[in-house]
Every structure is written in C-alpha cells, then in structure tokens.
Design brief:
Blueprint lengths: L7 H11 L6 H14 L9 H10 L4 H17 L1 H4 L7 H9 E9 L4 E8 L9 H18 L6 E7 L5 H4 L4 H14 L4 E7 L3 H10 L5 H4 L2 E3 L3 H4 L19 H14 L1 H7 L16 H5 L12
Parallel strand pairs: 2-3, 3-4, 4-5
Antiparallel strand pairs: 1-2
Helix pairs in contact: 2-3, 3-4
C-alpha cells in the first residue's frame, strides 16, 4: 500500500503544526533512541522511521514521546487479543475482512490530512468477534507508523453508522471497547481532527453517549453526525471518499485489496513484532497493572436503551 506523501509545500505547513525543526529533529531522534537503550523494560532497538512518527505525533516533546512509546510497548504486552497472532490470512481475520469496508485512503487533503472510512458490506450479519476487527485496525495503524514518511496534519474519519444495529451492540463487551480506545488514545501518535458519522439512526445517538466516557473531551467535541451526504461534503473533500460512502474516489474494494496485500507483505514483520513489547518484570519501580491501565471491570457507566 503506497500512501501518497504530502507535497513539499504541504510539508512546510505540517512541520509548523508538529513543531518540527529540520535542524534539530535528528538530535531529538537520537535522544529517544538513547532513552530506549537505558530503559530495561522496553525494547532497545526500533526503527528510526517509526520513532520519528511518534515524535511528530507528540509535537517533538521528548517527554510526551517517551510516555507515548512506553504506553505503546506496554499495550502490546497487556492486550494480547489485539497484538498476538496478527496473521491477516488467519480464518478469523479473513471472516472480518469479508464484512468490513475500512480503509485509510492513500491521498491527503489540501491541508495535509489523511481520510479513513469505516463501514461494512452489509448490516444484517452474524456478529463476529469485535476484537478481531480491532486487531486489523491496529495492524493498519502499525503499518502507518512507518508508511507516514513525513507525517500528515491529522486524521479525518468518516463512519457509516448503518451497521450499528442493536443485535451487534448487545454482543460488544464494554471492556474490549475501553481497551481499544485507551490503546488508540494513549499509545498511538494519532491526531484525530474530525469524526464524521453518516447514515445515522436514533440508535446511533445512544451509541455515541455509551462510547463518550471512553473518549477524551477534545475528541468528543470533534464528532459530527450528518443528516445527509451534502452536509458531509461541505467539510470533507468528495474526491477523497469512496463511492460506497457517497464520494467519487472509486470503489472501496480496490483500496481494501491494496491494504490486505500490504498486511500480507508485512507478515514476517508482524510475526517478529510479537516479542517487541514491554517486560513489566524489568520495569524500574512498580510494574504497571491491568487496573491502572484500564480500570476495574464493571465500573462502566450504564445507559438504558429506550
């Protein structure tokens, strides 16, 4: 999967957004690599490109980058349901791929943002294990850590809510949802700029309320539910969205096929990375506990379905 990189002109804007100084970024990179070498519980070697993506995602704050990287490797150890057995050819993952229409589009918007669309090929299907969907999403996220060679100004998400049915929702564990959002928000250098929901029903309002406690306030404020596609395309470029989502960027399956092939091509890397994670037995001071990361099971706010 070849992601189109921002133009040199866009990169100037993006670097200002990241607080990235081309004269000092290599020094910052070396500082993080040296820090990793000194932390006994963390992997001491990781490729430069991925570390640079973390630096950009943390606006070149060394302390924020260290916290984010520590959490990233910690999550890899704490959530095996997301980070183990990441072979895209496994039957349980193939089952998900047949249902999902979730892709990161290869281009960037005029202001340097990347668009991701998420939906399903149908709505009335047997509910699969949502952890496997989350696993694929995080595999794509890990691929992007290297593929975003110069960084983007942020991410725009277009979510097709027609798949949001009560029968699927009732089989979703709050625990796994909380793990996913903690992981995305605390362990990945993602800049969520906009979340756009289309094909919403009244039930979607309930789901947003149910999910909101797991989201940071700034992300909650960036969720927009659209009454129609005209509303969406006032703020999201139509040529950046596949036809199945109302856009003009071609069929979604073509992009899906490219992403699936990219994940297949990275099979050896994904296998190798299963051992690249934090070792809590070697963490200086007190090991990080599951409760510290995710809270107590059963502590989620309950909402009543009308």
């Amino acid at each position: 999967m070849n992601l189109i990189q921002p133009t040199p002109e866009q990169q100037v804007h993006i670097r200002k957004t990241f607080n990235e100084d081309v004269n000092t970024r290599d020094r910052d990179l070396e500082a993080i690599k040296e820090w990793l070498r000194k932390e006994p519980h963390l992997p001491d070697t990781w490729d430069d490109c991925r570390i640079m993506t973390f630096l950009r995602g943390c606006n070149f704050s060394l302390e924020k980058t260290k916290r984010k990287l520590d959490m990233y490797f910690t999550m890899r150890a704490a959530i095996p349901e997301f980070f183990a057995d990441r072979d895209i050819t496994r039957p349980e993952l193939q089952e998900i791929l047949k249902l999902m229409r979730t892709v990161v589009m290869p281009g960037v918007t005029a202001d340097g943002k990347r668009v991701t669309v998420a939906g399903a090929t149908a709505s009335d299907f047997e509910t699969p294990d949502i952890a496997n969907f989350m696993k694929i999403v995080l595999m794509i996220g890990d691929f992007r850590l290297k593929a975003e060679q110069v960084g983007v100004a942020g991410d725009i998400y277009v979510l097709d809510a027609s798949v949001a049915l009560l029968k699927h929702f009732l089989k979703v564990s709050p625990t796994i949802v909380k793990k996913f959002f903690v992981c995305i928000q605390e362990a990945y250098p993602v800049k969520v700029k906009e979340v756009h929901v289309i094909n919403a029903t009244p039930f979607v309002d309930f789901i947003i309320k149910w999910v909101s406690p797991f989201l940071k306030e700034k992300i909650r404020k960036r969720i927009h539910v659209h009454p129609d596609l005209d509303s969406l395309f006032k703020v999201v470029p139509k040529d950046m969205v596949p036809e199945e989502f109302g856009g003009t960027a071609g069929k979604v399956q073509g992009y899906m096929d490219m992403w699936i092939q990219a994940l297949k091509d990275e099979a050896a890397w994904f296998k190798e990375q299963e051992s690249v994670k934090a070792d809590e037995s070697r963490r200086p001071g007190k090991p990080t506990s599951h409760e510290e990361l995710f809270g107590l099971d059963g502590s989620f706010k309950q909402l009543t379905i009308d």
